[in-house]
Request: fold
Amino acid sequence: MKPGPRNWLSSSVWICVFFLSCSLRSPAQQPIQQPSASPAPAQTQPPPPSSDLAEQEEQLIKKCNEQLNVKGQFKDAEESAKQALELSQKMGDKKRILVAMLYLGSAYYDQGRRPEALEVFQNTAALARETDNRKGLSRALNNIAGVLGDLGRYEDSISYLYQCLDVARALGDQPMQFTALLNVGQLYIRLGDPDKAEAPLLESLRIGREMKHSDLVSNPSKVATEASLRLLGDMEIARERFQPALKYLDQVRESHPDNAQAQIELLDSLAVAHQRLGEYQRAAEVLQEAIPIAEKANSGGYPILVANLGETQESLGQMNEALASEDRAMTALRRTGGNFDEEWLIERRIGHIDRALARNEEALAHYENSIHTIELLRATALNTETGRASFAARSRMVYAETADLLYDMHREAEALETAELGRARAFLDILAMSRGGLQDELRPEQRKREDEILAHISAVQKNLWKENLSPDEERKLKAELTSAEDDLETFHLQVRQSNPRYASIQYPEPVNVSRMQKDLLDAQSVLVEFLLGEKRSLVWAVSKEKLSVGILPPRKEIEDEVSAYRKALTGKISTLTLAASLAEMTPACTKLYSSLLQPVENALVGARRLVIVPDGALDYLPFETLVLPARHGASGENGPPYLLEKFSIVYGPSASALVVVKEMNREKDHPPKTLLAFGDPIIDVSAAPAENGVQATRAPSQEPESKSAATVAEEYAERGFSFSRLPYTREEVLGISMLYSPNQRQVYLGERAREETVKTENLEDYRYIHFASHAFVDEIHPLRSGILFSRGSLSTEDGVLQMGEIMRLKLNADLVTLSACSTGLGKLVNGEGILGLTRAFFYAGARNVTVSLWNVNDASTSTLMKAFYENLNRGLSKSAALRQAKLTLLHSKESVWHHPYFWAAFVLVGEGR
Reply:
């Protein structure tokens, strides 16, 4: 699978017979060497084989290898492998039987007969364990992983690959390490996570270049290097960096791959790059070069090449030819046993072409087939948030295109339900796992192992924050951190494999419109849900009794508007620049209102609360700041009325997510205490390295003695990523805490605000949990995002409560507030939303989370937060309380605070009641 806007299929395969893989298979391999372990007991030794039979068997294996890896004669290879297997069985030689079975499974696989291949490889693994043939076991594990990956069982696939890698490393088996690393890289590309593919692919390239001569291939280094370079090209394609991709692929082409499968895969990758560059005719020419090679070889990649040709023909406007190609591809694919991970894309393409031909009913049937297949695959996707989110991003277009088609067919409610089906599914799945109590079922040795890995991660993080690190030291530490994080993911995969309860988790299903109206909305609430599309976008407005829908501009136009508006909104503001900034912003936020809400504004009449479900770049937009047109009322003292002045607003990753969170907390007891707060941390280091992808957050005031809002604004004091004290966080926490009696509050300030305290405090006892501190958001590695705490020199913690650690907390909080900068940001994933700190607190048990969308001012934030809790204490709902707090700043005597930069950063994610 080649991720990206066009979502091409990949002809790459995974299987390794003995040592070497082109992508995730083997172009040329050497036989398994005789085990170096002690021989088995005499009574289990087979009789010496007949020299004639042994010679015949060896010749058949060599012939099979040539048919598979040089000539591409996969059906003939099957017959040779069967004959070799029969001779090995006659001799009773289990080592030879294992070799023949590996070849037979590979022949099945190369013909696209995956179920038969899987059965053979599973039997091979059992035989390898029985005979303690660890080299044979590593090959069988790799090949099982390959078939499972093609069947969409990604978590099982990655688990087998790591098992294979462990065996190969224990044996010091370089060739198999190369193959497993290559396959891990290929899997992450297929999962839509090319950044995670880079490290294993570069390591495979290093090992491949060190390959030595073997009996069956004269230049294994050449073949291995070609395989790694080609996948690095695929990785760059997935990153949408097409020129670097072509540089990798051109290196492979100049090397002249020797076998049919390698040629097929190279041509396929080149075609993808040309397609994505808009060079459709060149892409078609490359595919037409590859298809005869695949057809002659009877390659399992043949249907994929034909399907990709259909995509190119569609791009060229050759609709009938495109439809014929896709139909031919699907027929060929199903003739070889099928492949869900490829079928859903072909079904989607046929639907897309049918719609272009104005055959809407036929198009809908194919889109529904595609969605059905995706839903089957989704249940087997990698059980991590990034793994599930990446899979959701790959398939998002199917749901979006289907919803858009249903709108054209005047089936508006079904259109919204289809959009919901493709939205924030990873959030729902991980929520079910995290709230299921399975973390409590770790065995003592498992918990010890998890603690060891987490301690290692903390130690590396602390070392990374040391001053004066050399570039080489920093590079090594980052590599060590990545390796430790991979160890943690592998550990969690192994835990899930060993605990049958994970298989019985009931994942929440998206809700329909009637449930949204019944369980999420009251008479004064309206759900506003967006779906950004390439040609047009849609917005639904759902009230207690009615559903309305409107057409919006295309995704690109909306994203450009939002980007320009955010730039103006978050720029530096002072009393001198206030008027000019507001004058610049007003037309932009008025235009955004017209683009986003005007088509459904009649449905908002009478509402007091809006529940916004954004999409794409709209996740970064505080809707409160949109300006209502003049027809909505006279301008106030601060100019035209903001949406804030008419509605309280809450946000959610999906309507279904908000309903499910509400249901999960319905039966929980009310916490016995009210407030737990942390603030004013003291850090014992003075600086931290700035990394690409890390957002700066809450920095201290430059004038701690001055309480003048204007002065603070002019200094642009923010709560950004820094290790300096935050003077206003102490005042903020103390001011909030005074609203509650001593037996209802617990406050940790200064050196007492420690990470250890968060982890040992009985968090389930508190209704409100408040963090006023520094924070940082890593948009490349979301799990590294965190909140900073005081840290002593002897502490075993790193002083940063990171996302993965937050997810393991146990909360029963009605509200968690992250009073720091940019805490609502993270990695934006298409169809899934933002992966970051907000979700981590929901997974831990929060019902609502208050977060910020940019770097907040220290003094104004302190005032806002105190007003927020005062309003809560007066009995207002959370959404109304935050709205009134914002209005306090908007109408403040400090004129600079009238700018949305000061009052609009914080948003409430959750139901907000």
About this structure: The chain has a mean pLDDT of 83.
